[in-house]
């Protein structure tokens, strides 16, 4: 018999730079659309990615998933690629602007492959004022009260 379903959230920190720029529009349009985030030399953030999983609480361990397994997965899939990287140079963003919204979508794609629990949400904090959530393709918008 499966135990009760619980949610687990885990946070990972990484530092990366990016430039918000669309080649298909003029330099003036890019500056107007992205402002200082269109700096030709890029700019950096200390990101915090939070992933939330759900699953039955294992009767023997009392856990939704083994944190060592999750941390190992995050190290291999997220941190080895994103930490101290220029996001524009990563294959993930070859055809997409490396906005934090697109970072959320990419992290969803990565963490959806984690085999031991169900991914429910990815949140990426870009600054103290900006955070972005992604709940998967086709998810209804959820508002926090």
Can you give keywords for this protein?
145 residues, alpha+beta, Tetrahydropterin Synthase, Chain A, five-stranded mixed sheet, 3 helices, 6-carboxytetrahydropterin synthase activity, lyase
Notes on the protein architecture:
With 145 residues, this protein is of the alpha+beta class. It has a single domain, classed as Tetrahydropterin Synthase, Chain A (2-Layer Sandwich). The protein has three helices and five strands; from the N terminus they run βαβαβαββ. A five-stranded mixed sheet has the order 3-1-2-4-5. It starts with a strand and ends in an 11-residue tail after the last strand. The model has no long low-confidence stretch (mean pLDDT 94).
Topology of this structure?
Layout: E1 5-18, H1 27-34, E2 43-56, H2 67-82, E3 85-86, H3 100-111, E4 118-125, E5 131-134
Parallel strand pairs: 1-3
Antiparallel strand pairs: 1-2, 2-4, 4-5
Pfam families: PTPS (PF01242)
GO molecular function, one term: 6-pyruvoyltetrahydropterin synthase activity
Catalytic activity: 7,8-dihydroneopterin 3'-triphosphate + H2O = 6-carboxy-5,6,7,8-tetrahydropterin + triphosphate + acetaldehyde + 2 H(+)
Amount of helix: 10-25%
Could you tell me the strand content as a percent range? 25-35%
Tell me, briefly, the overall form. Answer: elongated
Mean pLDDT: 94
Which class of secondary structure composition applies to the elements? alpha+beta
CATH class: Alpha Beta
According to CATH, what is the topology?
A: Tetrahydropterin Synthase, Chain A
Assign the CATH architecture: 2-Layer Sandwich
- H/I helix tally: 3
Uncertain segments are: none
CATH superfamily descriptor = 6-pyruvoyl tetrahydropterin synthase/QueD
| Main sheet strand line-up | 3-1-2-4-5
* Tally of individual domains: 1
- Beta strands, count: 5
Ends apart, CA distance between termini = 34 Å
| Topology pattern, helix = H, strand = E | EHEHEHEE
| Rg, nearest Å | 17 Å
Main beta-sheet strand count, sense and barrel state? 5 strands, mixed
């Amino acid at each position: 018999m499966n135990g009760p379903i619980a949610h687990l959230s885990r946070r990972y920190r990484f530092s990366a730079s990016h430039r918000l720029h669309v080649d298909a529009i003029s330099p003036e349009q890019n500056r107007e659309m992205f402002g200082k985030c269109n700096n030709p030399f890029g700019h950096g953030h200390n990101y915090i990615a939070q992933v939330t999983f759900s699953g039955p609480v294992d009767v023997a361990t009392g856990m939704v998933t083994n944190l060592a397994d999750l941390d190992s997965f995050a190290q291999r899939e997220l941190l080895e690629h994103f930490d101290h990287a220029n996001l524009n140079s990563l294959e993930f963003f070859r055809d997409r602007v490396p906005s934090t919204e697109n970072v959320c979508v990419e992290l969803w794609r990565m963490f959806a492959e984690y085999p031991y629990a169900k991914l429910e949400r990815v949140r990426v904090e870009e600054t103290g004022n900006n955070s972005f959530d992604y709940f998967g393709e086709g998810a209804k918008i959820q508002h926090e009260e």
